[in-house]
């Protein structure tokens, strides 16, 4: 079928709407008409080749839509059902078997290779040219996507697809770090470095968990104001205040948990240095491949502190996304407050607004007003 997709042609290049051909489904695949797709920081660092996704390719990994067709082996969802798309994984490696699919041993092949993990083909083409697809098992900056049965989650008819689309990556990443990875207990203290979409999802999850101290740290006053409105008990503008000193002043001995969502090594250092004894710092923001960080060994050793990486909030998406949808429906997880919605053909404006900080979470709407590609 013919689709319209935003193609990234070369490193750092714009997202250009093009008409592509989408080929036959494999048995374990389904075709999804995309209603909406969030833009995540990972789309932009893959565009910029911090992670070497082969180009040209269609990025986009927070899609949601309606099933148009299913392969012969698909039984979980049927044509006409609504689905959210999330990251892909193999289902059979030791981490997948331990219900930790975001640490799948073949996570790169399933999410960043821009081909099917099974046979290194792509469903997308343009004339004789193969175009990379299957990014996070979806490539959802497009009017239709090929997903696998394994990386779709059913969404009930009364839940808005444009709000739930970013649950597939950024939102479950922040919330999952708090609720799954750390299992933050009531009364705990939590510092969130970077109050973008991942960070504010973590703040909201901290409120749900009953954390009594939730400290947001950022450089942008508007984001800090929103974090405070949505449950941060204190916010620190790191342009004018040293966050480690201020967290020590506020807590007396540091925080139990810290989340680093920015990808900046100096911020990771601060997230470790503000921990109380036995505290845990989570590395969530992705820097350029090969980035190193300096930590004081004795900070880790003498306080029994932990530093660990967290991918996709340790989510089992088929369990965790429906749980977050319930929190949203019941008013405890108002992530739509972070979102601004754009027509698909305004994707470059949406990206620019994300990069300037004017929009925390841009969400593209594909179903209407897609311009005719030139
Ligand atoms: Zn696996
Ligand atoms: Zn993402």
Residue share in helix? 25-40%
Would you report the number of β strands? Answer: 18
Helix-and-strand structural type: alpha/beta
CATH superfamily of the largest domain: Medium-chain alcohol dehydrogenases, catalytic domain
**Sheet bearing the most strands, described?**
7 strands, mixed
Write structural notes for this entry:
This protein is α/β, with parallel strands linked by helices and 374 residues long. 27% of the residues lie in helices and 26% in strands. The protein contains 12 helices and 18 strands. It is globular. The chain binds zinc ion (ZN) (2 copies). The site of one zinc ion (ZN) has 8 residues, from helix 2.
How do the strands and helices of this protein lay out in sequence?
Blueprint: E1 2-8, E2 15-22, E3 29-38, H1 41-47, E4 57-58, E5 63-70, E6 82-85, H2 94-97, H3 107-111, E7 124-126, E8 129-131, E9 144-148, E10 152-154, H4 161-164, H5 170-181, E11 189-193, H6 197-209, E12 213-218, H7 221-229, E13 234-237, H8 243-251, E14 255-260, H9 265-273, E15 275-283, H10 297-302, E16 306-309, H11 317-329, E17 339-343, H12 347-356, E18 361-365
Parallel strand pairs: 11-12, 11-14, 12-13, 14-15, 15-16, 17-18
Antiparallel strand pairs: 1-2, 1-4, 2-7, 3-5, 3-9, 3-18, 5-6, 6-10, 7-8
């Amino acid at each position: 079928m013919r689709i319209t997709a935003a193609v990234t042609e070369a490193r750092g290049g714009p997202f250009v709407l093009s008409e592509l051909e989408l080929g036959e489904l494999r048995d374990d695949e389904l075709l999804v008409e995309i209603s909406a797709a969030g833009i995540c920081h990972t789309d932009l660092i893959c565009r910029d080749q911090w992670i070497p996704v082969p180009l040209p390719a269609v990025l986009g990994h927070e899609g949601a839509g309606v099933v148009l067709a299913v392969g012969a082996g698909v039984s979980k969802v049927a044509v006409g059902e609504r689905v959210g798309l999330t990251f892909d994984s193999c289902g059979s490696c030791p981490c997948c078997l331990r219900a930790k699919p975001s640490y799948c041993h073949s996570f790169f092949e399933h999410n960043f290779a821009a081909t099917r993990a099974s046979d290194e083909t792509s469903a997308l083409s343009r004339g004789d040219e193969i175009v990379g697809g299957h990014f996070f098992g979806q490539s959802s900056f497009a009017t239709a996507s090929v997903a696998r049965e394994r990386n779709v989650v059913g969404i009930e008819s009364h839940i808005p697809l444009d709000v739930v689309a970013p649950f597939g990556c950024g939102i479950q990443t922040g919330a999952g770090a708090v609720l799954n990875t750390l299992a933050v207990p009531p009364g705990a203290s939590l510092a969130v470095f970077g109050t973008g979409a991942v960070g504010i999802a973590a703040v909201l999850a901290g409120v749900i968990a009953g954390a009594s101290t939730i400290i947001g740290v950022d450089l942008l006053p508007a984001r800090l104001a929103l974090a405070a409105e949505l449950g941060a008990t204190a916010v620190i503008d790191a342009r004018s205040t040293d966050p480690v000193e201020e967290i020590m002043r506020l807590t007396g001995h540091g925080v139990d948990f810290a989340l680093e969502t920015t990808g900046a090594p100096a911020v990771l250092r601060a997230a470790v240095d503000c921990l109380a004894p036995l505290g845990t710092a989570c590395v969530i923001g992705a820097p350029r491949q090969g980035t190193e960080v300096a930590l004081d060994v004795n900070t880790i050793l003498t306080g029994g502190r932990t530093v660990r990486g967290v991918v996709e909030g340790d989510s089992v998406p088929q369990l965790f996304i429906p749980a977050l949808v319930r929190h949203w429906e019941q008013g405890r997880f108002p992530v739509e407050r972070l979102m601004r919605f754009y027509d698909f053909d305004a994707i470059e404006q949406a990206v620019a607004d994300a990069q300037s900080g004017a929009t925390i979470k841009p969400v593209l709407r594909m179903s209407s007003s897609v311009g005719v590609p030139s």
